[in-house]
Amino acid sequence: MYKFISSSSKSKLIPLLSNSILYKSAYSSNWVSNSRNESSKFFHKPKTGNGSLVLCGQSGFRSYSSESDRETMNYDVVIVGAGPAGLSAAIKLKQVCQQKDVDLSVCVVEKGAEVGAHILSGNVFEPRALDELIPHWKEEEAPIDVPVTSDNFWLLTENRAFSLPSPFDNKGNYVISLSQLVRWLGQKAEELGVEIYPGFAASEILCNEHNEVTGIATNDMGVAKDGSRKENYQRGVALKGRVTLLAEGCRGSLSEKLIKKYNLREKGQGQHQTYALGIKEVWEIDADKHQPGYVLHTLGWPLDQKTYGGSFLYHMKDRQVAVGLVVALDYQNPFLNPYEEYQRFKHHPAIRPLLEGGTVLQYGARSLNEGGFQSIPYPVFPGGAIIGCSAGFLNVPKIKGTHTAMKSGMLAAESAFSMLQEGLKMENYWDNLRSSWIWKELYTARNYRPAFEYGLYPGLALSAVEHYILKGRSPVTLNHGKPDHEATREAQLFSAIEYPKPDGVVSFDVPTSLYRSNTNHDHDQPSHLHLKDPTVPENVNLPKYAGPEARYCPARVYEYIPDETGDLKLQINAQNCLHCKACSIKDPKQNIEWTVPEGGGGPGYTIM
Known about the structure:
Structural class: alpha+beta
Mean pLDDT: 90
Subcellular location: Mitochondrion inner membrane
Family: Belongs to the ETF-QO/FixC family.
Pfam family, one: ETFQO_UQ-bd
Shape: globular
Low-confidence stretches: 1-12, 14-67
Helix content: 10-25%
Distance between the termini: 33 Å
Radius of gyration: 24 Å
Number of strands: 30
Number of helices: 18
Protein name: Electron transfer flavoprotein-ubiquinone oxidoreductase
GO cellular component, one term: mitochondrial inner membrane
């Protein structure tokens, strides 16, 4: 059983252990008790023609009765993910409700222990969407304090840095912590009446007999590693919505299922998504080295010329500096280790002096979409829509996706309101998206990322022509190369890369970095990382690709350990997982399925 807690800082469902609490039913003006003895009387049961719902689970469809032990809460709109897109959608819905004098119930469910805990981004923030959503954000004390003061772009070799004309236009943008901004957006959503449930992971899509999505279900809590129920077992909750919006971020597990089920990528722009892995630290440096608003991007070393990627270094407030490396996941060499490449980057003679004497405050990693315009799926499914980075609206040459994610959530919210109150179709979201500034921006930027399929220097030349001469008006649209997992080549074609040992000053081992991510999972729970075929690691990945799992993961989740006979076997340390999703993207045989762990697990970012 669960109760709803609301405060000025957060709202959440927590297991109901002893006391009862009053909550307001989503479809009723009456205040009702959900105490243990009265729960069956007051919780809403599924209402369909035959008294049942259909679950779209890992094994297809299965139905359950309205007499199920899963409790149900009904809302007008259910949003999965309390990130920029999800919270912008929630806020916009409530704003339109106020304008139209309508009361719609809106719920946001978030797998992180609190709002912002799983949010990681560079981040140089473009406030365009926020200006539209909350025009007086400065007066309302949004955590946006550091305007960009300088914009620098370097080409690195192993020992030198060459300054290039900056293709970025960051005038009017701000260096921020996105996890802090998301917390502020959560507070604004609550003030408007949005109910936010952090610490609960959406694990299943609920569908009716007409194959329409009717909401989501959270996963069960208190299940042991062997599948048995522990003393603290709590059945998951069904959150039903007349409209369901998926805002899970890049490579969202439920979003990916629906994209495949309804063939949304084929109905959209048609090309596969391509990804990168971003690895980031926030440092506190000496005051005499700190330049608030200083922005630096680099290309080149330490990556080889066939691997797309680059670094960023942003001076935040309070002597903090965000430092990171982004590595495209279509790299070919299976010996490449993104984590170690990042450690090596920090030793560059143009970077190391800044960091020496400083302290790492936080570490994290996250995958990001790089497919851009060519990879946008059709975002509408029966019963809802996909928004934000779950769909993939990142502007690669800008290295920005927060403003487009927020705008997509706002557009979806307007379409959801029109559907619920005016009888229009949710498909209007697709039409509005294509007529918005998101579409124009991504279309103009569409050829930058695929230009680098030809290598670093041809990519620089082609992108310069796009930027300075054609200005996004090229008569052709370039295609992406192979999907990321297919780009990995056999180990026999490469030599192993010998990475230097960390010095403990600017470079660190994985356990040290993991500690700084605040990552935590209950060890006694089923692994959320599933091998579709448990023989693939030892029979294919290890002999053919030299066990790339042990290198593309930035958290040492995957290790090859000798068994009692000396043979190497894959060990999965699921408790280390940063929820970056790189494993589900880069595994050569697509053998790893990433699912949500118990709600509240994962990283605990505060300043990322």
